[in-house]
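[step 3/7] inverse_fold.run input=structure_tokens len=224
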């Protein structure tokens, strides 16, 4: 996760400067790292309910929700929720870092700013908003991406950027799915660690999208 954060942060700085060349390699590397992370669930999924009961009492209130690195990745990619920072308040350095990422533009926000610099019509309230709030899908943004996908040769860099973002989210969602199925296999639909609802909590996370228009535009293109 530390390497993911390093590469994502570097890619964000490049996008902010309008330089996409190195971004593609960085995002490809992150997707490969995510694939490696996902494989860890194949090992954990060998744990049986009996195995889990043998040590679960020692977990206490420990939960993946408390991972500050995971939270930083989610914030950087756009899943912003201020309340989720509070669990880190007892660690000032981590708390301050997460607050900084929370209140900064996400990767997608920077990409939309880049689209605007390239002449696409991006609403002002998308380009200048409260960055600590989750991004809301916008029909104008979908229309902008539709133009990119409808004229790939004219917008090759933007098209490649879009597809690298889709790769990134796809791998992230596959990691979430593997997490959910591993938990379901071990504890069923029982209560999860850290007071979460377990599988139900993880299933809800699967419905979240970092780059919503890059998914919805596919349906729109099929209708045209």
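[step 3/7] decode complete -> sequence:
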């Amino acid at each position: 996760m530390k390497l993911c954060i390093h590469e994502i942060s570097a890619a964000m700085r490049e996008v902010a400067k309008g330089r996409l060349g190195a971004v593609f390699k960085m995002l490809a590397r992150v997707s490969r790292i995510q694939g490696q992370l996902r494989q860890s669930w194949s090992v954990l999924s060998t744990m049986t309910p009996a195995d889990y009961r043998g040590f679960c009492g020692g977990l206490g209130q420990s939960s993946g929700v408390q991972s500050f690195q995971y939270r930083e990745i989610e914030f950087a990619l756009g899943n912003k929720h201020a309340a989720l920072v509070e669990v880190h308040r007892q660690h000032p350095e981590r708390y301050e870092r997460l607050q900084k990422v929370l209140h900064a533009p996400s990767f997608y926000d920077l990409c939309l700013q880049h689209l605007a610099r390239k002449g696409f019509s991006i609403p002002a309230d998308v380009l200048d908003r409260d960055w600590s709030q989750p991004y809301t899908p916008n029909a104008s943004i979908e229309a902008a991406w539709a133009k990119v996908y409808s004229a790939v040769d004219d917008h090759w860099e933007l098209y490649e950027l879009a597809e690298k973002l889709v790769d990134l989210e796809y791998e992230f969602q596959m990691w979430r799915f593997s997490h959910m199925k591993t938990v379901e296999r071990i504890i069923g639909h029982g209560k999860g660690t850290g007071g979460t609802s377990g599988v139900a909590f993880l299933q809800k996370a699967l419905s979240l999208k970092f780059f919503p228009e890059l998914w919805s535009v596919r349906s729109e293109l099929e209708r045209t």
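[step 4/7] annotate
The chain is about 65% helix and 0% strand.
The chain has a mean pLDDT of 89.
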